[in-house]
Amino acid sequence: MSAFLTTKLRPHNLENEFRADTLSKDISQFLILIIMFIPLISFFIITDFIFIKSTFELIATVISRGINILILIPIIFILRKTSRPKTLDKTIIIFLSIMVTHILIVSSFAEYSNIAIIVWDIIVIIHIYTVVPTQLTIQIVIAIYLTIGEIIFLIAFKHTSWKTMEILSVFGAFMWANILGIFISHRVHKLRRKQFILNNIEQKIMEDLENALSEVKVLRGIIPICSFCKKIRNDEGYYEEVEEYISKNTDADFSHTICPECLKEYYPDVYKKS
Hints:
Blueprint: H1 2-6, H2 12-51, H3 55-81, H4 85-109, H5 114-130, H6 136-158, H7 164-215, E1 232-233, E2 239-240, H8 242-249, H9 260-266, H10 268-273
Helix pairs in contact: 2-3, 3-4, 4-6, 5-6, 5-7, 6-7
């Protein structure tokens, strides 16, 4: 179970290499998430003025949303300066904790319909597991924090008139969102690390191939050879034996033998016996 939740490469230095390699992508993904979060909060501020009737609750909700937006500014600054995966994880924990706490505060004031609250809570939970680029254990802690808090607000304090079927449906929806999110997140973490390993193997193969090709000597172009003695003229203008020239310019070695025609011409007695 521990291995399922951590989903880390072994040995430890390999996991560090993976986190360092994917850090820039994770930061970019998280920055996009934050940028998308700002107009969403702005939209909810408009709905607050429409649906919240109490002046105190309206002011408290709008202030909470405003603080949430202001906190994003230093978080964005930290992310742009981040060069360590641990710093990214800590920043994500702070962001998610503030965001979920804000959601719970707003839920305690909101007079929205039951379905609206549940739908948005489940959307947030799924996004925590599938979009936020951090460890699965961090995702689980934050998602469970939101789940428990919302169930308390929705069932224990706000909607005591709900029947047993409605309560079980809400509980089941939150549990299913967490279970589905955990398995999706685990799969994504596993596939990302597998792809990292495959990329490393491919890179190593390409480096070995380039090294091998760099050591291969190939003769190209026109080779000047004497028509009579068959010596080859080198780059300095001197004539060399074929064996000497090829040995210098390639990785080939020579093993002398004799062809049947030469054997017949120079060693007729041996040729007849053979």
